[in-house]
Each structure stands twice: as C-alpha cells, then as structure tokens.
Predict the structure.
Amino acid sequence: MRRHPQKRRIYVVLDNAAIHRAKAVGRYLEQLDGRIQLWFLPPFCPDPNPVEREWQAYHAAVTVLHHHASLKELLARTRVYFVCRLRCCVRRLLANHGPGNLPFRITSQVGQVRDMR
C-alpha cells in the first residue's frame, strides 16, 4: 500500500494455499477498507497459472516415482532440472528474438537476469 498510495484498489491474484485464507490475512484486509481485493484462481487451474505446468513437469522429471538417496541428491537433481529449463528458455528466446532484441540481459551466473527497460 505504501508503494501505491494513490491507487484506490489493488487486485491480487492468488492460488488456494491455506495461508492466503488465514484469519490474520482477513483481519489485515479488513483494516484496508477494501483497497486490496483478492481474486482466487480455481482449485486446480493450470491454464491461467502457467507455473502449474512447470511444477507438473518438474515433479514428473524429478520427484514422482524417482528415488533419491538423500536430500542432497534431490536438491542437486532439482538444480540440474531448473538450470536445463532456464537454458532451454533462453535458447528459445534467442531463436525467436535474437540477442539484441531481448528486454533484459542474461549474465553468466545462473538465475541472474537484469531488466533493461
């Protein structure tokens, strides 16, 4: 609210995590006199929420029906999965737009993307 004091109403789209429906959240929202409106996605709605498709692919590739000897191994395979996904996305962006037409710069560190707007 401090970042947007001039706005009459702010809409927030959420999934159905239990924390989003907690009593403390409701009490806080009541104090704001309706300035923040929560819009909940349907219980399982992968189309409006693209990250759900990514989580499904992650679970299929790394967690579901896969045995990991330790938490360390699970975390290592998780990192490999997301690094590969990031590289795939970057290759697709470069193929579609070319390196000079991206609205951000990709650095050598995994996960570091700088907004160029």
User: Anything to note?
Assistant: The longest helix spans residues 71-97.
